[in-house]
User: Which sequence fits this backbone?
């Protein structure tokens, strides 16, 4: 075991996969010699050289298009889109090209690539560099969508994403890059489509993703110590494929479901899960499903306003306490 | 209106025959087959057997033929929604193309892609892309793979004049030049972006060639109705790419005899324009070229007869083919062949 930051885990994950498979190549803006604007790819250029780790122009369409062309002809590229918000300038590839290639060609071609994005808020960057876009990507048939919350999951899920034969959108959370935790030595490979129960509990199920995971865990502690509510906290980790089995079995036990979502409210990932649970586990529920989300607003830059927008500890605790008291 | 640097029938080039009879017959055969298959697609559309949309290349066949004949097996074609010609030119059987247009099980993708997405990987046809400009960066990626692995194949990317005004075109050109990729970009300038004359919406006269210098590339603007000229230009560009010389941008000046798609009667064309271009019909020109080189009329007629026979046989095979089975609906969403997004 060694303590590793989330940003160091990104570089270790990519290095693990590049060392294993010569077909893994990596491209993006400022990723090679500079080591990434978030310092997530430091050392890769030195270790793997200029033919495998390549700086690109500021051309997001060229980055994703080139990744796709390489993927469909035999390589397994990892492409960085620096801020997740920039997915909007190359969304054609994310929405129209990667995910439909296999289907439209009747299985003649596949698109085994990973798009890493710096997702999420909390860094005071304002409305065009802070969004949580996981729900944009979740709704497109043919993509897989992952958002890890810990250094170990960054490595394990990145390895799984690189080895997967589908296009995977890998949402790293910018506000987690500095977060540290112990990570085992040696190769780490996880499995896409698996949620993780981080804390067991009997009274309520809390689903969270990425930056909302540590907040949900903190809220669970407060809810137990101050309100006597024993929450089960699940890190959803993978939106597509979605581990509904873990979620449904937790709801069957607790009878209550709360989602803690950073994406803005309309069509956030929790809405789909709420729909599934209402459909398939309605009689397990002891009360309404409650979604705690960023409101349906663009994100402000100022620190106190941004803190007000994203689900925070106080809001999470209050909302769950109110709902479980029967008042909400 | 863009004018080719090199006009049809340059007498010296014709006399200096570096094309050869076999290649010439192949160029003629492909042009005739592409034309016949395109006309048949149109007929089948009028019979309501081809649904949806259908973008024909009638009048532009010399480009598909000249480029494809200059390619090697393993070279990769990236086409647009107007991609039937380039697909056929790589040797894809007509029934695969017509069957796909008709939504039959015999189609190249068994009806899952349709007219705008013809793909046949075994023939090097790496897809037809219906979002303008999208495939230029994708072709760069395939070329990057060749460069990285040391493969000697070239990626050839076809697009229309309208594509030169979208961002992906400029991103791809710069990217390919900076990375020195073995990719050849081929602009088929048929003078209309859908319904609007390209000159009305473009700051330069030759929409592709006049942009080449911005990416450090040579200006190449050729007669796209002369299959010999296309073939020679393609051969040189492919050789350069294979030798590590980087990308080329070739503008082929041509004309679309039909409207943009089956829904377009092309009434926006000035009077006499079509008639003038029909005089320069690539197949008519090339038939005369063959005669000029003393190729026997019987050989020419045999090619034409065989093309008719092929298109009739393909039509019958497609009409006899059932639609794809219902199970195909949810197949191949993901690489495991399935569509499952949850457990």
Assistant:
């Amino acid at each position: 075991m060694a303590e590793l930051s989330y940003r160091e885990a990104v570089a270790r994950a990519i290095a693990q996969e590049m060392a294993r498979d010569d077909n893994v190549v990596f491209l993006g803006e400022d990723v090679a010699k500079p080591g990434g604007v978030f310092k997530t790819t430091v050392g890769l250029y030195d270790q793997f050289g200029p033919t495998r780790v390549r700086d690109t122009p500021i051309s997001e369409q060229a980055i994703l298009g080139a990744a796709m062309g390489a993927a469909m002809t035999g390589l397994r590229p990892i492409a960085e889109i620096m801020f997740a918000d920039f997915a909007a300038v190359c969304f054609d590839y994310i929405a129209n090209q990667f995910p439909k290639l296999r289907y439209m060609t009747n299985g003649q071609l596949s698109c085994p690539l990973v798009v890493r994005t710096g997702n999420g808020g909390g860094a005071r960057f304002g409305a065009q560099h802070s969004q949580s876009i996981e729900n944009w990507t979740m709704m497109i048939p043919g993509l897989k969508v992952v958002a890890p919350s810990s250094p170990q999951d960054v490595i394990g899920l990145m390895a799984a994403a690189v080895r997967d034969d589908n296009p995977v959108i890998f949402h790293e959370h910018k506000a987690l890059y500095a977060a540290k935790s112990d990570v085992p030595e040696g190769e780490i490979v996880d499995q896409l489509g698996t949620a993780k129960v981080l804390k067991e509990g009997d009274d309520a199920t809390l689903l969270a993703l990425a930056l909302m995971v540590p907040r949900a865990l903190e809220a669970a502690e407060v809810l137990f110590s101050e309100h006597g509510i024993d929450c089960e906290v699940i890190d959803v980790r993978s939106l597509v494929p979605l581990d509904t089995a873990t979620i449904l079995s937790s709801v069957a036990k607790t009878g209550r479901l709360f989602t803690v979502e950073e994406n803005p409210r309309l069509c956030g990932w929790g809405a789909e899960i709420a729909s599934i649970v209402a459909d398939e586990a309605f009689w397990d529920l002891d009360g309404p499903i409650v979604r705690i989300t960023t409101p349906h607003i663009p994100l402000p830059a100022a620190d106190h306003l941004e803190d007000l927008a994203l689900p925070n500890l106080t809001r999470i605790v209050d909302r769950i306490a109110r709902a479980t008291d029967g008042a909400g | 209106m863009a004018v080719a640097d090199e006009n049809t029938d340059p007498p010296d080039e014709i006399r200096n025959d570096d094309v050869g009879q076999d290649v010439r017959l192949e160029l003629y055969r492909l042009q005739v087959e592409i034309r016949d298959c395109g006309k048949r697609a149109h007929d089948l559309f009028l019979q309501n057997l081809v649904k949806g949309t259908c973008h024909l290349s009638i009048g532009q066949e010399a480009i598909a033929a000249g480029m494809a004949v200059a390619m090697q097996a393993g070279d990769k074609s990236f086409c647009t929604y107007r991609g039937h010609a380039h697909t056929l030119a790589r040797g894809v059987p007509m029934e695969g193309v017509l069957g796909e247009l008709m939504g039959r099980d015999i189609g190249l993708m068994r009806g899952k892609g349709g007219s705008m997405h013809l793909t046949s990987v075994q023939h090097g046809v790496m897809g037809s892309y219906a979002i303008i400009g999208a495939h230029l960066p994708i072709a760069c990626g395939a070329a990057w793979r060749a460069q990285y692995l040391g493969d000697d194949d070239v990626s050839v990317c076809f697009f229309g004049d309208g594509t030169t005004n979208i961002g992906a075109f400029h991103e791809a050109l710069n990217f390919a030049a900076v990375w020195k990729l073995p990719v050849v970009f081929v602009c088929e300038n048929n003078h209309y972006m859908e319904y609007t004359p390209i000159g009305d919406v473009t700051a330069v006269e030759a929409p592709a060639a006049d942009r080449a210098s911005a990416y450090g590339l040579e200006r190449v603007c050729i007669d796209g109705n002369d299959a010999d000229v296309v073939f020679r230009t393609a051969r040189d560009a492919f050789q350069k790419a294979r030798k590590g010389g980087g990308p080329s941008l070739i503008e082929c000046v041509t004309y679309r005899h039909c409207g943009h798609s089956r829904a377009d009667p092309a009434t926006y064309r000035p009077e006499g324009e079509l008639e003038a271009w029909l005089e320069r019909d690539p197949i008519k020109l090339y038939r005369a070229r063959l005669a000029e080189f003393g190729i026997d009329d019987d050989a020419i007629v045999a090619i034409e007869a065989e093309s008719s026979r092929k298109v009739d046989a393909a039509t019958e095979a497609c009409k006899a083919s059932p639609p794809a089975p219902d199970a195909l609906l949810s197949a191949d969403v993901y690489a495991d062949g399935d569509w499952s997004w949850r457990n």
